[in-house]
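Protein modeling request. Please complete all fields; requests missing the sequence field cannot be processed.
Requester role: graduate student
Desired output: 3D structure, token encoding
Chains: 1
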Amino acid sequence: IDLRSISLPLSDLDWVYTGGVPFGSCFEEIYEELVSRFKNRFLIRGCSPEITGFLEKSGCEAVVTGSEAVISVEGWRPGESLRELCRRGLRHGGISEISSSSYNMERLDGLRSRTPYGSKPFLKYLFRTGLDDDMRCFVHSGNDGRWLGAVTVSRTAHASAHVEMMLRSRATPVGVMEALFVHVIRALGRDGYGELSLGEVPFVLPPELCAGDGAKSLKEKLLFGSGHFLRFAYDYRSLFRFKDKFGPAWRPVYM
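Delivered output (255 residues):
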């Protein structure tokens, strides 16, 4: 098991931000490796409710951080409004899957510089930002050949995948990103995938928690309160609305 981490000096924790785990491994094995290497002083994020339940029983503390949008690929169909957005987006070019290469990585970096957040500091360690051999990348090319949008996807299990990067140029017309995501979902379905995670939206509670008391612990209340002050730099509510167009199931995500 290949675990990568960075130290968090103020909390004396090691944040395990990514890792390579063989297919078929159970989380108990991963937990034993975490305890062995980090002596019970580790932090992991993006945890599902099932993993969180195991960790809490093992003595860990869990804090809900947001919601994950998960699509059941088999039998998935876009609604009429989404199909109309796709039709509008496809007027401006076409979608294709590209290979992993240094040239394509340079083009991705160029697209990233043209995104609405291209001039702001780049978030590190939250998702895979490269284009590795084990990843897939889909791009929407404009009629002039310039990339308008891109999505990278990593494989998380034999039949599961996870969206890593989603990049949109500032000049991207309406419907381009919707058409791109619909293409990705259909492509994965043809290749036998059963589930696609569109990734996490922080500071947004899933319906099952909203129906209750919401964030309960002091840490959760502080975390979700901070989201209000971060909206000027990171519009997470727009991200939620975009992902919700695809009709996902919303699951809580924990740290």
